Amino acid sequence: MYQLLLIIHILIAISIVGLVLLQHGKGADAGAAFGSGASTTVFGSQGTGSFLFKLTGGLVLAFFTTSVLLSATVAKQYHASMTLPMAEVQDQQTAPNPLPIPLPEQ
After folding, report:
1. Domain annotation covers residue 33
2. Angle between helix 2-22 and helix 49-82 axes, rounded to 10 deg
3. Which domain holds residue 54?
4. How many domains does one find in the chain?
5. Which of 5, 15, 28, 83 shows the smallest number of beta carbons within 10 Å?
6. CB–CB of 53/16 below 8 Å?
7. Predicted TM-score of the model (pTM)
């Protein structure tokens, strides 16, 4: 479960980085004033701005969700490891340390 969540978390993080790099900055609209903006694009006259913005927002929400789930999973595993039964340890009796055997003198 933990490994699956971690893989999904990493894939979402890489996707967010890619989407942020694809988006135009605020200064990128200055080129549209000189005729480089096309109104007949695949995503409409607004371009990819709102589509990529919504997709990035959804991925960020998924990233935070997987972060919380990973944190809860690790906390649960840590809590479970701290509450091991101590009866097994107490039941084992340790043998007393034997006295050292003296070596014969030569």
Report:
1. no
2. 160
3. 1-24+47-82
4. 1
5. 83
6. no
7. 0.58
